[in-house]
Design brief:
Blueprint lengths: L1 H8 L7 H8 L3 H13 L3 E3 L5 E3 L4 H10 L3 H15 L2 E7 L3 E8 L12 E3 L5 H5 L4 H9 L7 H17 L2 E5 L4 H14 L3 H15 E3 L4 H4 L5 E7 L5 E8 L8 H15 L4
Antiparallel strand pairs: 1-2, 3-4, 3-9, 4-5, 6-7, 6-8, 8-9
Organism: Mycolicibacterium septicum
Protein name: Winged helix-turn-helix transcriptional regulator
Keywords: Transcription, Transcription regulation
Length: 274
């Protein structure tokens, strides 16, 4: 799996056996045997200059993924459209029971962030769009289960944001200027300490809650400061099944009516007809 992941992330030129071994942390002899087996199954192919790339044997898996994630093709077209219209980096995520899984990106440096296949817990703030249309009891249990625990004031604030998202049919956030330097300092500390996955997730959740402020209900006056827009893509059940995260970067080049129009167009394009 690590060898296939390494080849998936490589350039079109592929990797040598030694490069694959180095990325996977295995010996060159073990790697040679591994690649030979993968080549025999057609999962990797070897070029004339003895470099390896993903092979045609994976097409069956790609076809299966398209059945499981029907928005893969249309989602890529939508992300490209949004990227061109808004001059913004975009990613498409599948909403699961407890996680958001990134399934495509356009405009992001995937070696740094938003890599395809990454999973993120459905936590505030971006999990708010996934949860905004759930019944009150489910939302209340979810908010009370966030770690670190939210105070009653925090819960009331998040419930208001949920209502704002339902009213506008998407969410928008900006970095809180009062906490931007704190975000940078704590991010630096997290990077140097390398805490456990659980500790890192909880600290990141807390950091995100502190430094991001919803402007969903004030976009008429705050669009110029909006950093992120999260657009739900509804399924036949009426619940969001996918979401598109759009990084406006705090300097959107469109008016609010133009933004609403392009987001509604993408929503209509991707929402299945019953």
């Amino acid at each position: 799996m690590e060898a296939l992941s390494a080849l998936a992330e490589a350039s079109a030129a592929g990797l040598t056996s030694a490069e694959v071994a180095r990325k996977c942390g295995i010996t060159t002899s073990t790697c040679a045997l591994l690649l030979a087996e993968l080549e025999a199954q057609g999962w990797v192919g070897r070029t004339d200059d003895r470099r390896y790339r993903l092979g045609s044997g994976l097409f069956g898996i790609v076809h299966g993924l398209r059945r499981q994630f029907p928005l893969l093709d249309r989602g890529r077209e939508a992300l490209t459209h949004l990227h061109n219209r808004l001059d913004a980096a975009c990613s498409l995520s599948k909403i699961g029971t407890r996680h958001l899984t990134t399934i495509d990106v356009v405009g992001h440096d995937t070696s740094v962030e938003h890599a395809v296949g990454q999973r993120f817990p459905i936590d505030p703030p971006f999990g708010l769009v996934a949860m905004a249309w759930r019944v009150d009891e489910v939302v209340d249990d979810w908010l009370r289960g966030v770690r670190p625990r939210l105070t009653s004031v925090d819960i009331a604030q998040q419930q208001q944001v949920l209502a704002d998202i339902r009213a506008r049919r998407y969410g928008a956030w900006r970095f809180d200027d009062d906490h931007s330097s704190l975000h940078q300092r704590l991010s630096s500390v997290l990077g140097s300490l390398e805490p456990s996955e659980t500790v890192n997730r909880r600290l990141t959740t807390l950091l995100t809650l502190v430094t991001l402020k919803s402007v969903t209900d004030t976009l008429e006056s705050d669009l110029a400061t909006a950093e992120f827009v999260v657009l739900p893509i509804f399924g036949t059940s009426g619940q969001p099944e996918y979401q598109i995260e759009i990084r406006l970067g705090g300097t959107p080049q469109v008016s609010l009516p133009e933004l609403d129009e392009v987001l509604r167009e993408v929503q209509d394009r991707l929402t299945p007809t019953t």
